[in-house]
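seq:
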Amino acid sequence: MSLEIEKDFSKVGLPPGTLVHVGDQKVDQVQISIMDYDATKLWESEVPSLEDYMSSKNSPSVTWISVNGLHDLERIEEMGQFFDLHPLLLEDVVHTEQRPKMDEFEEHLYCVVKVWLYDKMNHQIQEEQISLILGNNFVISFSEDQKDFFDPIRKRLRKGKGRIRKMGADYLLYALLDIVIDNYFVLLKQLEEVVEETEDELMNQPSSMTLQQIYQLKKQTLLLSRLIHPLEEVLRKLMGGETEWIADTTVLYFRDLHDHCKRVTDTLNSYRDILSGMVEMYLSLMSNRTNDVMKMLAIIATIFMPLTFIAGIYGMNFEHMPELKSSWGYPIILTLMALVGIGMSWYIKSRKWL
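struct:
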């Protein structure tokens, strides 16, 4: 039984909202950083204090609180109490087996998304859960480890270029989701390379390992499709005016994200079609190879059939047989058998059976 399933069972009987970390501990210590900004100034801290939280909560500027690591339940619960986060929201944050979704609470908007990384060495797709909470003038992001997927956003904030410093917290939520979906295109490019390599191997030197690789890729693309569809629904809600947390000026950007998500879906569907065609091609190649072997065996059997007949006749040991007493009998019969074999081979080749 896996560790995740065991932890799921450990929640049985507990009250709703009880924090139980489901997933792997990927960092030694939870790391929290704060960036508070507006159009004219930027302030950030890598080791925030209680006063920093208080000022960020009451600040008219936009505050981004980034949390790396989910195993320190005490600290996460303290943050939840400070920002009035719903217990069910915090329960989903530390449960890393969530599917992409959006929940709207009275004072917060909660989104769950998945980040995908491709391990080319082991041909495995690794995923990480990202939780994003949008509140009044602040965004809190929760990730499982220290991989800084959002470092480009930090660089843009520090440089003060673009519209991100001039927009509200809902635009920051868009920027974070945009980075996540951009990573999907990086993964799709890596998958495309693997699919092309597998296709080359299929055409040049197919083996049972090739078929296993194709089925593994099909399984991975199916998993990604199952995860991308709920994200499409989340973006549809964000761009459709179904929540008050997204300003009209930002809806257009979420619509663009939805279009990107559709492109990811279309690309995954095309990969699945290609892989299905590769399975059919593999089966066809194996069938053709079997047919070639059977054809060659049939040709060999056809050539040796009259030779076996002649050898069988002279193996019956009757006393009165042609050339039986002749000193030239043995070489004559061997020559006859050789001529018959050559004649059969010529006939088969002239009919283009070989």
